[in-house]
Amino acid sequence: MTQFELSAALVAALSVRGMKIASVESCTAGLISKIITDAPGASDVFDLGITTYSNEMKTRMVGVPEAILAAHGAVSPETARAMAEGIRRVAGADIGVATTGVAGPGGGTPEKPVGLVYTAISTKNGTEVTRLLIDDRGADRNYIRNTAAETVLKNVLEMLERL
What we know:
163 residues, 5-stranded mixed sheet, 6 helices, globular
């Protein structure tokens, strides 16, 4: 499925259900927002997208607790969960999605290597966090970002099919 097909399918699925989605992104740097808004009709289902690279902005813009960032770091399932729940609350959306990870080429550690991404999807029924380890051998920053963004949006589509 191309990014445009993904966008169109997601916008249609949300429209049919009368639902809204919002995103807060770190490593994907707004790519989720871009993909969603590529489809006509996106303005009916998408109100807000935020890119938060610094811990301070994660806390200030979507309410990620400083204690989570101090204990687990920005690249963690706990931070992804707090980001998704925060953007859903801030936007008043039905679905909040978040990404945080190491897109590279630098910044990786043995514990958090380049290609490690956590995504989260928050709804009124709870929050699902997914750990991705996108193989960075030969992959560049854009490959990691695109893979992460497409994965979270495919996961939203799958979640919508279960409703």
